[in-house]
Design goal:
By secondary structure, this protein is α+β, with helices and mostly antiparallel strands. The protein folds into 2 domains: 33-77 and 223-362, no CATH class; 80-220, no CATH class. Helices cover 25% and strands 31% of the residues. It has helices at residues 5-20, 41-48, 73-76, 94-101, 135-141, 174-183, 205-212, 245-259, 297-311; strands at residues 33-39, 54-62, 80-87, 105-110, 120-123, 128-134, 146-147, 157-163, 187-195, 217-220, 223-235, 280-295, 318-324, 346-352, 355-362. The strands form 2 sheets. An 8-stranded antiparallel β-sheet has the order 7-8-6-5-4-9-3-10. It has a 7-stranded antiparallel β-sheet with strand order 1-15-14-13-2-12-11, with helices on both faces. The two termini are 43 Å apart.
Length: 369
């Protein structure tokens, strides 16, 4: 049998080339989960309350030229604190549990940590201590946990969840002593805030608590900015019931362009441009306000109620966008979060008169191979 060695050589060369130079542009990135639907007001608020660790809030107000200085004051005055090298067992000590965790709402999140390769720590509003740990840290710690959904093949990441409001987590009990001793091995730089049960108590009490324990505590201020965009085309939203997934995606994309003040004017027939979804109408201006920092989700709900009461009676929609942290262990409820090609997580509430439309953005549930 005659074999053409040149063709065989070309075949192996081609295989070797493809192995060394894979067509990475043909690999499909995991798709983010985008959900949108019209909801009743109470259901909308209930869904938003499941969100953890808000990093930024943006309000879009079409046909509004200016807002009073008092608008959004609840967000502007939402100071939070950074505690460096916090030993994690401090979070289960009786004084902390009694005076802060069981009295008001505590939010805590580790900073300068990447969810895909570092140990990440969080306390949710519902009182769960979430430890997102590397394999070596998990094995050294000695607490019960489970393999991360996104690392179930490599088993490189583990999740430990501790209910800080549980009756079993009380001093003197064997479980409490075991948890406290294990958590002494963990340290992290964290940001935190405390929402007191009533306005007579100062939220800064939590910073003094850690300062008195000898920790380096830094006050972090909310960053606020605003702008007014003039002569803008705005999509007309007549009926939320008629919005399908495709139209909603286009509308949300338009909101994103407005928030970054992107150009929607055609510069050249050879350059791709973005057009406002139709039908649309010309308005004189759009007011955009942004807050960036660390917020309890209750602040988002308060802002929603403020916009609803003051600006939702006109013909144009109003929108609130809230964004989470890319590297938080959980985002929506207690569902595990991750960073694959992005750490997208957030939501948009679109309001018009008495109607609400909620859009939720989540990371893909695809696990690593």
């Amino acid at each position: 049998m005659y074999i053409n060695l040149l063709k065989v050589g070309d075949l192996f060369s081609n295989i070797l080339y493809r192995m060394l130079n894979p067509e990475v542009w043909n690999f499909q990135a995991p798709a983010s989960v985008f959900q949108s639907h019209k909801v009743e007001r109470d259901i909308c608020l209930k869904k938003i309350r499941q969100f953890n660790f808000v990093h930024s809030v943006t309000v879009i107000l079409p046909d509004i030229l200016s807002v009073p200085d008092s608008f959004g004051l609840n967000l502007t005055n939402c100071d939070y604190y950074r505690v460096n090298s916090l030993t994690i067992d401090e979070l289960v000590k009786p004084d902390f549990l009694k005076n802060f965790l069981n009295c008001g709402n505590v939010n805590l999140l580790s900073v300068n940590t990447s969810i895909d390769c570092d140990d990440c720590i969080a306390i949710t509003t519902c009182g769960k201590l979430i430890l997102h740990l590397n394999k070596l840290t998990f094995q050294t710690l000695g607490l019960e946990g489970k393999v991360s959904h996104f690392h179930k093949l490599s088993k490189g990441k583990y999740i430990v969840s501790i209910d800080l409001k549980s009756d079993s987590l009380k001093p003197g009990k064997a479980f409490y002593e075991r948890v406290k001793n294990c958590l002494q091995k963990l340290k992290a730089d964290v940001i935190l805030q405390w929402e007191p049960p009533n306005e007579d108590i100062c939220p800064s009490s939590i910073s003094k608590y850690f300062f008195d324990l000898g920790y380096n505590v830094k006050l972090c201020k909310i960053k606020k900015d605003s702008e007014t965009i003039f002569d803008v085309k705005v999509p007309v939203v007549e009926n939320f019931d008629k919005l399908n997934q495709y139209e909603t995606a286009k509308f949300v994309e338009w909101l994103g362009m407005v928030m970054i003040n992107g150009s929607m004017e055609e510069q050249s027939s050879y350059i791709s441009t973005y057009a406002t979804p139709e039908p649309s109408i010309d308005v004189g201006q759009i007011k955009i306000l942004r807050w960036r920092g660390f917020f309890n989700v209750s602040k988002v709900i308060h802002m929603l109620q403020e916009v609803e009461s003051k600006y939702c009676k006109g013909q144009f929609f109003k929108a609130i966008y809230f964004q989470g942290f890319s590297d938080s262990p959980v985002v929506w409820g207690l569902n595990e979060h991750h960073f694959y090609t992005n750490g997208d997580n957030g939501g948009i509430v679109i309001m018009k008169k008495d109607e609400f439309f909620l859009c939720c953005q989540k990371c893909s549930n695809k696990y690593y191979k």
